[in-house]
Sequence to fold (293 residues):
Amino acid sequence: MRSSNPVFSRRGFSRDNGYAGFNAAPQAGGPAVGTQANPYAQGGANPYAQNPYAQQDLQHGAPPQAPVSTGRMTMDDVVMRSSMTLGTVAVGAILAWALLPVTNTSFGLAIGSALIAFVLAMVQSFKRKASPALILGYAAFEGVFLGVISEMYNSRWSGAPFQAVLGTMAVSGATLLIYKAGWIRVTARYARIGMAIAIAFIVVMAVNLLLVAFGVAEDGGLRSMGPLGAIVGIIAIILGAFFLTLDFKQIEDGIAYGAPREEAWLAAFGLTMTLVWIYVEMLRLVAIFSGDD
Fold:
């Protein structure tokens, strides 16, 4: 089973449509205990499979030499790619904030950047392999969008973007701590229930957007700047935390099962989309609680 994000068909550490996530932990020398074997077992998952001296060392009672480079994904790879992707978002946001004044033109540019970012994200989501160019391109255009809307919010609610950043860090940090403590177990049932709720939420938000666009719902409908909008925003942030747990599980399983190193880009892609989701919702929530100053 694949986990997902705001783009539901997005990445997964997979081979031949298989996915290592939501199974029991891998066991040495054999497949995972569960319904699906290690999807990386094909093609020499054993790091000593290509070492011509491994069997000889074992016969002489000596431990086999580890290969110089296994080409497998590590946590360092995930951190480095995630830093590059999130750094690109940050640079795009800073440049947009500094260079684009708060006007209708810049707002139109922000919407255009968001649409381009969405298209790039969808293209990557349907690709079998990670494309660093697509992922960094998505991050750059997403950064422009965030920079413009952050400046707009800041012009009306001073300090809202900074508070939203702190809130995003708090939510992601708390989610990571809860996940590592084992208080949340990411199982197939957990993922199915969470995804059903997430899909229902997005469908309702899409309908609400149409009602607002055609003038049926006023003041943003469910996305108003009042108490109802605050409740919807809190639900959205909780869903963002849910997406983070799926991301953490995928990264953990990808490393445990020996995912290829290039798939660290997929981990960075997923984490970036989730953090952007949380930040945007946190920005709205901060504005609502700040009042109409």
